[in-house]
Write a structure and sequence with these properties.
Blueprint (H helix, E strand, L loop, with lengths): L1 H37 L4 H25 L11 H36 L3 H26 L2 E2 L3 H4 L3 E2 L2 H21 L2 H6 L4 H11 L2 H19 L4 H35 L31 E3 L10 E8 L2 E10 L13 E12 L3 H12 L1
Antiparallel strand pairs: 1-2, 3-4, 4-5, 5-6
Length: 370
């Protein structure tokens, strides 16, 4: 029996360390990509750093629980060890809820980087509000599960029924996972991209589905603990699923950002020929930018009135229209004839207008950030 207990405790410890290293590396690569390479770090990166710190606290608290009897049968653990283990469990639950909340917020903030449609952005902000309120509830109820607080590990006092609290929070956690998973799919499915590329993009955004599966498995382990007479033994599985859920959430949240870094140093692994991507029809509002054209095709206006001293020359590039006011110096009697003998001298005033559809912007941004 002792060997079985030792092996289960060691499994909790080793799994925690391995997954923590993977999560930490994912965040490091993400920050290198965003801060060092792309130079476009944002609030979503700050949120994932907070999530990593909370994840570290969760796994440290869980590993300390192993030292106090987690993974052993209750008959092998002293009352003092049980009390110390429950104190660490209290810390671990708080860290777990903070980590989950900030991971979800980071993912949705990343959606806001790439989606420009008013409707999808409204849904994103509404989901952030829902996740924030839910996360605040989980942290507060974790802190004051018992009154006084130390009754959680010392016993006595007045406590919220643990079974109700655990299952309510776990079920709502799965619900928000599903919402975040489904949120970008309508926009992604509407993009006019090659089927293979569209499926690839949807797969990247659907990586959270694995985290959702882990949440369901954790919910089952919670049920086992809630009906168990050997909590120190059975709670080991819940601990493992808890930090697998958090660490895989961090890894999945970082994958779209680290793709740019992989493409930079290993271009053949994730090569995509963007030059052959089909364009999208103009929908929604236009966005005006001043930009330089690398390739333009001049279009000469032949219906120019000879009395005018200025005409407008239009250069048309891919999705870009450049308008220039130019002065015309006529040669002989050919002025205004539109026969190709006019000399156009560009004045100092130039107006560059780029008209980009809302859907086109989303396509470009999604491809850039994933």
């Amino acid at each position: 029996m002792a060997s079985d207990s030792a092996s289960k405790g060691m499994a909790v410890f080793v799994t925690g360390i391995v997954f923590l290293v993977l999560a930490a590396l994912s965040v490091v690569f993400r920050l290198i990509a965003r801060v060092g390479y792309l130079k476009n770090a944002g609030s979503d990166d700050a949120a994932i750093v907070i999530a990593l710190l909370a994840c570290i606290a969760l796994i440290v608290a869980t590993c300390i629980q192993v030292q106090h009897g987690l993974g052993k049968h209750i008959s092998e653990v002293s009352p003092q060890e049980v009390s110390d283990m429950l104190r660490c469990l209290w810390v671990a639950i708080i860290a777990y809820n903070i980590a989950l909340t900030t991971i979800k917020i980071s993912i949705i903030l990343q959606y806001l980087r790439v989606f420009v449609g008013r409707r999808i952005r409204s849904w994103c902000w509404a989901t952030i509000a829902l996740v924030a309120v839910y996360g605040l509830e989980t942290v507060i109820t974790a802190v004051i599960t018992c009154i006084p607080v130390n009754a959680f590990w010392l016993g006595g006092g007045s406590c919220i029924p643990k079974k109700f609290l655990w299952f309510f929070n776990a079920a709502f956690n799965i619900l928000t996972d599903i919402i975040i998973l489904v949120l970008p799919m309508p926009v992604l499915s509407s993009l006019r991209l090659p089927l293979k590329q569209k499926i690839g993009l949807m797969f990247v955004f659907a990586l959270g589905g694995f985290v959702c599966l882990v949440s369901v498995l954790r919910l089952h382990s919670l049920y086992v603990v809630s009906t168990s007479d050997d909590m120190t033994w059975d709670n080991a599985d819940t601990a493992i699923w808890s930090y697998i859920e958090v660490t895989t959430g961090i890894i999945c949240a970082c994958m779209p950002a680290t793709k740019a870094l992989i493409s930079r140093f290993f271009p053949h692994l994730l090569s995509t020929n963007h030059s052959r991507q089909p364009t999208l029809p103009s929908q929604g509002r236009s966005h005006n930018f001043r930009s330089a054209l690398s390739h333009t095709t001049p279009v000469r206006l032949t219906d120019v009135n000879g009395d005018h001293k200025t005409v407008t020359r239009v250069e048309v590039g891919e999705g870009v229209y450049r308008e220039r006011d130019v002065e015309r110096a006529s040669l002989g009697d050919d002025s205004g004839s539109g026969n190709g003998k006019d000399i156009f001298v560009t004045t100092s005033m130039t107006q560059d207008v780029e008209r980009k559809s809302e859907m086109g912007s989303e396509k470009d941004l999604i491809i850039q950030h994933t």
